[in-house]
Amino acid sequence: MASYISPAIRDKFETLSVDLKNIILERNVQLNNIYDLIAVLENIVAEGEQ
Fold first, then answer.
1. Strand 30-31 versus strand 4-5 pairing type
2. Three-class SS of residue 30?
3. DSSP assignment, residue 7?
4. Which top-rank group of organisms is this from (predicted)?
């Protein structure tokens, strides 16, 4: 499954760094709204703290 970024939040997604966007895309996630994006970012932060 390829990652999906909804057009509704693509502008927010594009403000992220290239490295962070690549990390998100590698996770094969469905980002339909800002809450999905926030959840993925929180997971990345939590993993980084471990």
1. parallel
2. strand
3. T
4. Bacteria
- Report d(CA 8, CA 30) in Å as an integer: 13
* Pair of tokens at residue 3: 């990652």
Strand partners, 31: 5
Q: Which residues contact 44 (CB under 8 A, 6 or more apart)?
A: 20, 23, 24
Q: Write the pLDDT tens digit of every residue in 6-41.
A: 999 999 999 999 999 999 999 999 999 999 999 999
CB count in 10 Å sphere of residue 41: 14
Please tell me the distance from the alpha carbon of residue 34 to that of residue 47, in angstroms, as a whole number: 20
3, 30 contact by CB (below 8 A): yes
Strand-pair partners of 5: 31
